[in-house]
Amino acid sequence: MFEVPHALHLPALAKLDRTSFTQTLLLASLLLVLFYLVNFYGKRWKWYYYSWKVPGPFAFPFIGNAHMFFGDPVRRMNGFMRLMRSHPDIVRAWLGPKLVYMVSKPEYIEKLINRSTVIDKDDFYDLFVVLFGNGILTSKGDRWKSHRKIMTRSFGQKILDSFVGTFDEQASIFVDILKKNVGRKDLPLNLMATRCHVDNICATTMGVSHERSNYQ
């Protein structure tokens, strides 16, 4: 019997150490991910609890209902329209971790609009802060409310009522143009709607109205 020199065990020990280190690293990573998921979903449990009280399609883990809106803008719009037709009053959908409610019932919309606490904008507006600053278009909460009070004097009910005739005239022009283009597949509807909005602004603020031909 003779004893194997200790140096001969070093490669095996090094391999064992690397294996143990890899296993420990994987276990720590899994625990970290598990802790993050528990913490993330634990803070949002009310969202999930109340969302199940609202009708909507089955949501897959992580992606939710985002698969329904993949593709070009037409397919995304068709996805929204299918949801609204299946649940005409209110429907919920998950876009990844983001919960979205689509409301079409006038009574529900009225309650949302009339609530003074529902004044926060979506996080999507944060993208425009760099371009437009933190003004009335992008601000949230109390800051938006203070800006809105200043603007209210310029957009009071009496002032808006005086513009109803102009809005009606411009809307009639827009409808007439749409009737002339029924069946046209390449109709630039977005551009036409934008020009209609510009005409409304010009007519109400400066008293200037464009010709109908500029819509087309």
Rg value: 29 Å
How many helices? The count is 9
Sheet with most strands: strand arrangement: 1-2
Structural class: mainly alpha
List unreliable stretches of 5+ residues.
none
* Biggest sheet descriptor: 2 strands, antiparallel
Overall 3D form: elongated
Q: What level of helicity do the residues show?
A: 55-70%
Question: Number of DSSP strands?
Answer: 2
First-residue to last-residue Cα separation: 101 Å
Q: What number is the mean pLDDT?
A: 78
Q: How many separate structural domains?
A: 3
Order of helices and strands: HHHEEHHHHHH
Strand content: 5-15%
Question: How would you concisely characterize the structure shown here?
Answer:
The protein has 216 residues and is mainly alpha-helical.
